[in-house]
Amino acid sequence: MSQDVRNECGCCAGIEAATPGLLFNRPGLSAIAYRVGTYQTFRQSLQARLSDSRWTVLRGLRTRDDDDFTIALLDAWAMTGDILTFYQERIANESYLRTATERLSILEQSRLLGYQLGPGLAAATHLAFTLEEHPGLPQQAVQPITLAIGTKVQSVPGPDEQPQTFETIEAIQARTEWNALRAQQTASQLLSWNMTELWVAGTNVGLTVGEVLLIVTDTGSGFEASIRRVTGVMSHLERKSTQVLLATLSSSAGTIAATRPGVYVMRTIASPFGHNAPLQPQYSSGVFQGTFSEWALDASETVTRITLSSRNDKILKDSVVVVEQDDPGTGSRIWTFALVSDVVHRSVARYGIAGNGTQLTLSAGWAKDADSKLDLLRTMTIAAQNEELTPAALPLLYPVYGEELSFDQLVDGLMPGRPLAVSGTRQRIRITAVPRTSKRRRLPLDLPGDVPSPPDLPDVPDIELPPILMLDSGEVVFLTVGDMLSLVAPPMTVAGSVLTALTPSEFGAALTDSAPPLLRLQVMDRDGQIGYVNISAGAIEMLPPSDADDTVSEIAFIDEAIGTSIAQDRDRTTVQLATALVNVYARTTVRINANVAAATHGESVREPLGSGDAAVPYQHFTLRQPPLTYVGADTPDGSTSTLKVYVNEVLWEEVPFFYGHGPTERIYITRRDDEGRTTIRFGDGITGARLPTGQNNVRAEYRKGTGLGGLVRAGQLSLLMSRPLGLKGVLNPEAAEGAEDPESRDDARTNAPLTVLTMERAVSLQDYEDFARTFSGVAKAQAVWVWDGRKRSIFLTVAGPDGEVLTEDGSVITKLKESLRTYGDPFVAFTVKPYRQAWFEIDGTVTIDPEHVSNVVMDAISVDLGQRYAFEARAFGQPVALSEVIAAIQAVPGVVAVDLDRFARTDHTLPAIQPRLIADRPAMGADGVMPAAELLLLDPGSLTQLKAVQ
């Protein structure tokens, strides 16, 4: 304010009135000035009036001393004016939504728009129940029971936590056999003449390497047989079976007069009698001629009869014999498969030798011609004394993942849409080989988003390029033989720049393929870091589960398509899931619990409210046990009350307003005060019916409990508070989500006007964002138009309270989608995705003024940066500039200079200093996937990297 030229010397100061002061407030302020004066200006104005020429009676009052009674009175009135205008300004600020500081003021103003501050939202999860069972007496196991709505479960609190109560919100039928269903472990083993691997039942089958197996298969028109040699025997105790590796003996299958297929081990490998006979000496007129020739076959040696070189009492009638010999015509090896029709043990004298042998009569003849001699028998081998083996079901050695889930048994009673709790350990793999490359400095692939080149390799032939694990954090890890990793996503094949997802069976086949494909695997290393690696399928092997492996679990839903979601064959049930499994499980560890029910946070309360009085309009009652629980729903605001009010045992309906309702409608409204208490108000007989007169005829049923305290961890809900007969235990496979504390005053300032803009419908792009922002369980939302290559659609990125990353198929996003389909434009396609967290870090030195305490200054810097770059202060896709971080630090009192050595995102490695950090917005990627928007936040741990110097 400029000084009056008439009072340049200041001698006339205080002789003019300074009140009322001129008020001016520009738009957009968080507080308004509304005081017409303060103590000083009121005092000055009152004293100025003492010298006013219009008040002649006061001319005699010449003193201005503070101890004068008149001056003291003016001083008291100046103080009174100061106090009145102070509170008047406070009241004025409370009259505007932007400037109000009291939550009650915002609550009352919001009601003028028909908006109530959000009451908070109860967390939601699923509970997997276990029933009592009697393995030894299945007939005495618990019969199917119905778990009613309201089955109560309590959490086991951790440090500084309170126990939380959850109750089921749906009734389910539970069965003992559904406690821990196994995923399909085996498939039917088809016998074939050229099979290279065989699984037999038992772990002590008495097989050794080198033994011969006879395989008989059914062709549909008869039976064929072949023999294979055992090259490996591996017992699997956990599967109670033995894996047998086979090599070729017979080059083709031959017919056999069998009655059924089977597998037989031939315990005896014998030679025919005479195979070791010396050549026949040649005599002429009884004189040895000095030459030898081959013996002619004995007349008793017919093609259906063969004599073994030794006696064998274990060869029985109707057993199988395989005769291997040279073809008399071509000399190639041929095989004859026959049944023994007769067995005779006898002494034999032929070909100049004698001994005991076993003569077998065969159902099929071996080959000889008219010129065949004893040398034909010398090349012959007879496999006999067959012992039948029991083929086992073929174990499935690949992991469990994807949208199809097969059980190891027939499961009755499952219905479309039913939730399943799936748990197990992640499938582990081990690197068994490192591929070799010639004269390469880069990886064989150069895909978009692929890993960077290995650092400077010599340009020489046959360099081993180790597989590279590209972590999500941006770091690179070189892998070597023996490294173990866990799969966290379905494997994919890499062909050029095309990635193709593999089904579980295709992945298993790829590992044994003679031409193994290149795979891209999303994996977790031993330190819990996640990334991906490109590696040949031939360079890895799957590992059996270990006791040290952590168990992971999830909730999956059977698809709701009736008729196609559940299929049954003779041995097992297969279900189609609504969405693919999140984890990749080791098959033998998978357990599926079908006794699953949805549950929400809160404890049921039943209480009498009081007595109705028809003479009282707008009669009201207050619930005694706040806070009232609200649960997620597909309503415009995303929540619905659990309150039910009965009058004379008749249920009355809650409505938002009395306006527009008739005098006979049984309705009521609820209002919440600033302390969370809920008041129920009934009509006046004109808009809404009055309560009928009665004695304690008004009662309420509701649930109490809400807010972020209900976000229990997976496995934390394990105490049964309701225990129907036969119920044994309970667990929550997934962490609870969707909770929200009662709406704060700052959120209400933003959200209350949004309801007027959307009017409970979404038409424009801004409507979709505003609708999602006011939805219960959503703290931030961003809507943008995107192009997916065919059409334009809306892409919504959402975040939960306190930066919670919502589950894409969780309760909040699912209900938001349902609500948008109901209240949005039916012709506009939209996608809802949870946001992606991104972090940046800083490192450097801060020079502190020597006159300031360095610890106090550094704490102030940490608090300021922590608030400036916290979740509440950031927007999706909002970048961060180096200059603004330096300016924020420099603005803290006591800071002389700032020197940052690192300013970069934590998932980027180079360069260390960047002038501007970008947060991604939704955009179609090269792989055809559109990621959600990022929220770039300051890594709190990096604040400790700032060093103070003085």
Task: Give a written overview of the molecule.
- By secondary structure, the protein is mostly beta strands.
- It folds into eight domains: 5-101, no CATH class; 124-176 and 712-731, no CATH class; 180-184 and 398-426 and 551-594, Elongation Factor Tu (Ef-tu), domain 3 (Beta Barrel); 186-395, no CATH class; 432-500 and 509-549, no CATH class; 604-704, Immunoglobulin-like, CATH 2.60.40; 760-834, 2-Layer Sandwich (GMP Synthetase, Chain A, domain 3), CATH 3.30.300; 836-949, no CATH class.
- It is built from ten helices and 59 strands.
- The strands form 14 sheets. Strands 8, 9, 10, 11, 12, 13, 16, 17, 18, 19 and 20 form an eleven-stranded antiparallel β-sheet that branches. Strands 24, 27, 28, 29, 30, 31, 32, 33 and 34 form a nine-stranded antiparallel β-sheet that branches. The protein has a seven-stranded mixed β-sheet with strand order 40-48-44-45-46-47-41, with no helix packed on it.
- Helix 1 packs across helix 2 and helix 6 (745-758) runs antiparallel to helix 7 (765-773).
- It is elongated, with a radius of gyration of 44 Å.
- The model is unreliable at 1-7 and 437-463 (pLDDT under 50).
What labels describe this entry?
950 residues; mainly beta; Elongation Factor Tu (Ef-tu), domain 3; eleven-stranded antiparallel β-sheet; nine-stranded antiparallel β-sheet; 59 strands; 34% strand; disordered N terminus
